[in-house]
């Protein structure tokens, strides 16, 4: 029987899953909503991941019994307890299937250097720096989420830019093209109306 593997990369903006053959040939790809483990409910996480898996199986006509393993690289599971919780949730939906859950930084480091020493810097919706020494020891910096850090991330840059634009219309900052750019992006006549837009959403 031919066997297949499913890999899923879940971040703060979207989640992408792929299914490959034992030889590594890509058969299908499917994307879904963000699955940062710290920013969504457990129910949402379970449904989002399960939908991606089932969509990949449907697209390739592969049976779940033919899947050797599902590997998930998920933002927000840097702590062992969170990884165990995520794995337990998915194991209920796919009993008997090997499921491995790691944080996205671990996957990026392994993908870039295999088990060799190296450093990766992730600057996406969030940010984190992750590295492995020649002795195999892992070090990390950042990855504290948008409320406590994430310097250099997409969220951080957008937030700082918006603050500068608001300071400009307050008269306590320099005139900046950002005012017009944010008005155009959010389709606003007056940037002061941004308050309603931002606080009625869960994120930028």
Helix-strand blueprint:
Blueprint: E1 4-10, E2 14-21, E3 26-33, H1 42-60, E4 67-74, H2 80-93, E5 98-103, H3 104-113, E6 118-123, E7 127-132, E8 138-142, H4 154-170, H5 178-186, H6 194-199
Parallel strand pairs: 1-4, 4-5
Antiparallel strand pairs: 1-2, 2-3, 6-7, 7-8
Helix pairs in contact: 1-2
Task: Describe the fold and architecture.
The chain is of the alpha/beta class and 204 residues long. It folds into 3 domains: 4-109, Nucleotidyltransferase, domain 5 (2-Layer Sandwich); 112-142, no CATH class; 154-199. The protein has 6 helices and 8 strands, in the order E-E-E-H-E-H-E-H-E-E-E-H-H-H. It has helices at residues 42-60, 80-93, 104-113, 154-170, 178-186, 194-199, and strands at residues 4-10, 14-21, 26-33, 67-74, 98-103, 118-123, 127-132, 138-142. The strands form 2 sheets. A 5-stranded mixed β-sheet has the order 3-2-1-4-5. Strand 6 and strand 7 form a beta hairpin. Helix 1 packs across helix 2. It starts with a strand and ends in a 5-residue tail after the last helix.
